[in-house]
Amino acid sequence: MNIYIEKTIQYFETFKNKDYDKMASFLKDHTQYHNWTQTYVGIDKIIETNKHIIDNAKTNFEIIIKTIGQHDKTISPINITFIEITFKTDGRYNNRTFTIEWDNDYKINRINGFQR
User: Fold this and answer.
1) How far apart are CA 88 and CA 95, in angstroms?
2) Long-range contacts: 21-25, Cβ < 8 Å, 24+?
3) How do residues 25-55 score in pLDDT, each as one tens digit?
4) Whole-model pTM above 0.90?
5) In the prediction, which pLDDT does 101 show?
């Protein structure tokens, strides 16, 4: 398995396990997270946003990985992975797709989240 795909899975495992210290280790001071309504920049803002999402779940919170891969580097020299996830929160299912842009030191430059 490709190292960037492995790192993508590890990042979302930290989210699922509420391991915010480990999650922070994947991020850079200027990492950007864009979703369908907001943009967050920096480790503290991204961690705060993720805590808010999980803390608002009243019952079990689950992540189910549906597909994962890496974009073809012949199209872009940047290391970009994608992952399709189903979040199960309070008995509801929400499908999301994320692209993650990685630097060569395995740190995240940018996360883009799309609601499906």
Assistant:
1) 9
2) 23/47, 23/50
3) 999 999 999 988 899 999 999 999 988 877 7
4) no
5) 95
* 3-state percent helix, strand, coil for the chain, nearest multiple of 5: 30, 45, 30
- Beta strands 79-89 and 39-41 are unpaired
Question: Is 4 within 8 Å of 79 (Cβ atoms)?
Answer: yes
* Residues 17-46: b if buried by 16+ CB within 10 A, e if exposed: eeebeebeebbeeebbbeeeeeebeebebb
Residue 12: the pLDDT is 92
Tokens (6 digits) for 14: 């930290």
Distance (Å, whole) CA 33 – CA 105: 18
DSSP 97-114: EEEEEE-TTS-EEEEEEE
Burial class (CB in 10 A: 0-12, 13-18, 19+), 72: exposed
63 phi and psi angles, rounded to 5 deg: -125, 130
Structure letter (DSSP) for residue 42: S
